[in-house]
Design goal:
The protein has about 325 residues and is of the alpha/beta class. Helices cover about 35% and strands about 15% of the residues.
């Protein structure tokens, strides 16, 4: 049986950082004393799937503000067989379509996805969920760099990726993801709505939209809304409140502003009193190929980590 892994490519996904992140997991998770996992900025879900594979958590609460992302997770969780039927049709059509005509197929699916956004009922699981989830997975696997980006009108506007091959229907992987998601409650929600799902036996991982390293580095948005410095500060305040009142283990990822400006200590200031660590990451999205390389990112925790992790003083 394959192990559960992310079934979507996602900007800012943590698959390449899992080994480094694991070095910073709370010791209570490794020792089996943490039974509940919460991830309020779900995205590609790499950390959830890794923890579900390796640690004895009994339940999880997964949420994201992106309605179509959450709908797709719920369809994978609740209707995997029906979803695979649609994805298999997409796969066969894509494979038999000449390469020079695949862009037309992509645009047709993208148009259908955008047109149906006004009619979709995200609150009730029904057959239309399966079709929309399949469209999102198809677009994710065939668009440029696997991005999810909305324009100002809320329409998906990422161009075709021009791939010679694309794995649109990964039956084994999708079924493995569905099995892992059986222990999870999945909701479309703001991160603050996880409050009632957290207690002292919970590990919470926050992976919010990153603070841009420069004015030109911001990659639009996945939801149609922004995440400003003021929003980062509100999240830090929520982090402190969870720590103070819920006694949960908390970990948060974000960009490292010192990659561009050594004097920018924004996160050290708003998370003062907590542990701040650096991890090495690849620059996955940049229009300039020469700027795709190793940079550092930050991790903030409210608990001590392994000695070999170098804390910023």
């Amino acid at each position: 049986m394959p192990e559960a892994r992310p079934f979507l490519k996602w900007a800012g996904g943590k698959s390449q950082l899992l080994d480094q992140l694991e070095n910073h997991y709370p010791s209570d998770l490794r020792m089996g004393r943490i039974t509940h996992y919460v991830e309020p900025f779900l995205g590609g879900g790499a950390v959830f799937f890794a923890i579900a594979r390796r640690y004895p958590i009994k339940s999880a609460y997964l949420s994201d503000i992106n309605r179509d992302l959450v709908l797709t997770y719920q369809a994978v969780q609740q209707r995997p067989a029906e979803l695979l039927e649609v994805l298999e049709r997409y796969q066969k059509e894509y494979d038999r379509t000449p390469e020079e005509q695949r862009r037309d197929m992509f645009l047709a699916v993208r148009d259908a996805f955008n047109q149906s956004r006004f009619d979709i009922n995200h609150a009730t699981c029904a057959a239309h969920w399966v079709q929309r989830a399949a469209q999102l997975i198809f677009l994710n696997k065939t668009c440029f760099n696997g991005l999810f980006r909305l324009n100002s009108k809320g329409a998906f506007n990422v161009p075709f990726g021009k791939y010679k091959t694309a794995v649109i229907c990964d039956a084994a992987g999708l079924l493995a993801a569905s099995r892992a998601l059986q222990k999870a409650e999945i909701r479309q929600a703001d991160y603050t709505e996880c409050w009632d799902k957290v207690n002292e036996n919970t590990f919470v991982y926050f992976d919010p939209p990153y603070r841009p390293l420069s004015r030109t580095a911001s990659f639009t948005t996945y939801t149609g809304g922004g995440f400003s410095d003021a929003a980062q500060i509100r999240l830090a305040q929520f982090f402190r409140r969870l720590d103070r009142e819920k006694k949960a283990r908390l970990m948060l990822s974000n960009s490292d502003p010192t990659n561009e400006n050594p004097d920018d200590t924004f996160f050290e200031r708003i998370y003062s009193g907590y542990n701040v660590f650096k991890v090495s990451a690849g620059r996955a999205i940049n229009s300039n190929g020469e700027k795709r390389g190793k940079i550092s990112e930050l991790l903030m925790t409210n608990y001590p980590c392994r000695p070999q992790s170098a804390e910023i003083q």
